[in-house]
């Protein structure tokens, strides 16, 4: 066994990172800050882990404890990692101008459609990959609000503005609640979609209509 002082620096920071990740899927496990110092929170997390794993509760990180924490971390990582982000624009110069048709516009139009449920100024345009009509007007509206040239062309800067807007108004955390930056109704409740679409998937037999 090695004393706690031997873990100061990067190894203990790695230990804390693993324990912090495990705390997201193990209720009751303390969530240490990866600061490289084996403090009380880290000690308690180690002891709680040893208890839950049926190991001797020593509070010391010997080889067996380290290997057990590392194995649990590797097993838990896929379930706690955030979803993989999508790259809708493959290069800096990629753009879709008004009147053009592009499969990537389906994603853009779907995001605008969702935003139209909580922002009255956004039109509920069809998701058809064709950048015309309401699709162009929505892009121009967004560009104006973001301080970008109002060209109606969907390009990287406009995409970045759209994703930020989506995060602010529609992002939901792992508990299904609106994120803290989401808009609130005057009564303090969460924003309710105007079009009757649900926040969460319906059970079989449900309908959005």
Automatic annotation (TrEMBL):
Residues of the signal peptide: none
Coiled coil (residue ranges): none
InterPro entries found in the cross-reference section: Peptidoglycan-bd-like, PGBD-like_sf, PGBDSf
Gene3D superfamilies per record: PGBD-like superfamily/PGBD
Residue ranges constituting the Peptidoglycan binding-like domain according to the UniProt record: 12-69
Pfam family, one: PG_binding_1
Name the UniProt record assigns to this protein: Peptidoglycan binding-like domain-containing protein
């Amino acid at each position: 066994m090695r004393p706690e002082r031997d873990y100061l620096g990067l190894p203990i920071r790695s230990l804390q990172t693993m324990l912090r990740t495990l705390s997201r899927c193990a209720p009751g496990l303390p969530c240490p800050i990866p600061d490289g110092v084996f403090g009380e929170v880290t000690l308690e997390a180690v002891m709680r882990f040893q208890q839950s794993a049926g190991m001797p509760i020593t509070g010391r990180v010997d080889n067996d404890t380290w290997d057990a924490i590392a194995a649990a971390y590797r097993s838990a990582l896929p379930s706690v990692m955030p979803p993989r982000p999508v790259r809708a624009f493959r290069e800096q110069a990629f753009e879709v101008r008004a009147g053009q048709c592009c499969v990537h516009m389906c994603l853009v139009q779907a995001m605008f459609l969702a935003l139209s449920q909580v922002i009255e100024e956004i039109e509920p345009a069809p998701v058809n990959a064709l950048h015309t009509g309401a699709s162009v007007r929505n892009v121009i509206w967004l560009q104006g609000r973001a301080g970008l040239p109002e060209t109606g062309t969907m390009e990287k800067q406009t995409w970045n503005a759209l994703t930020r807007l989506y995060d602010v108004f529609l992002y939901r955390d792992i508990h299904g609640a609106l994120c803290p930056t989401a808009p609130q109704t005057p009564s303090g409740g969460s924003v309710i979609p105007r079009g009757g679409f649900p926040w969460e998937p319906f059970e079989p037999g449900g309908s959005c209509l």
